[in-house]
User: Fold Gliding motility-associated ABC transporter permease subunit GldF from Ilyomonas limi.
Amino acid sequence: MWMICKKEWLQFFSSLTGYIALVIFLLLTGLFLFVFPDTDLLTFGYASLSGFFSLTPWILLFLVPTITMRSLADEYKGGTFELLKTMPLKPSQIVWGKYFGALLVVVLALLPTIIYAISIQQLSAIGGIDVGATIGSYIGLLLLGAVFTSVGICASSFTNNTVVAFITGAFACFILYTGFEAVSKLPVFNAGPDYYIEMLGINFHYNSISRGVIDIRDIIYFIGIIILFLWITQRNVVKR
Assistant:
C-alpha cells in the first residue's frame, strides 16, 4: 500500500501541474486574507481567522479534485492499471494507497497556512487569536480535505477522462458541502426535517468542529463518509 502511496505522491509532483496547483492555493488564500479589501484580515480590527476558515473550504473544493483527478483515470487511460493488477496487491491496498498519497498532498498544501495564524497572533496588540477555535478549525479543514479526497478518488475511479473526473469530483464535493444545507432552507422543510437534512451535509459538521468543540459524532460522520466513498471506489476497481 505504501508503495502505491509513494507512487501517487511522486506522480503529482512529476510535472509542473502539481506545483502550480499548490502555489495557486497559497496565492489565493494569501490574497484574500491580506490584500483584497473585502476580506483583508488586517482591517477587521481584531485577531481572527474566521474569514480564512470560511473561505478555504471553497478553494479546497476545486483544489482537491485537481489533485485526485488523475489517480485512477490516468491508470485506466494509460494502460498501467493492467500492471497494477499483476502486483501482489489487494484492491483495497490500491485504493487506500492512492487515497493516502493524495491526502498527503492536501496536508502539504494546508501546512504553510499555519504561518497566517502565527502572523495574526504576532500582529495582535491585545489577547490574540482564539487558540482553541483555531486548532478546531484546522482539524475541521483536515477532515474536510480527507472527505474531499475520498470523493475525488471515487470520481476518478468511474472514468478514464481526467477532465470528467475533475468536474464530477468538484460537483460531488459541492453538493456534499453545501447542497444539503441549501435544501434544508426550502420552505417545504421549515419547522420540520430541515435540521436533520442540514445534518447530512459536511458544512454542518465542519462549522461544529470550527467552534473548537470536538464532538465524536462529527468525527464519526467524517470517517463514515470517507469509508463509504472508498468502498465505492474499491468496488469500481474490482469491476475493472
In short: The chain has a mean pLDDT of 82. The two ends are 19 Å apart (CA to CA). The chain is about 75% helix and 0% strand. The chain has one domain: 2-239.
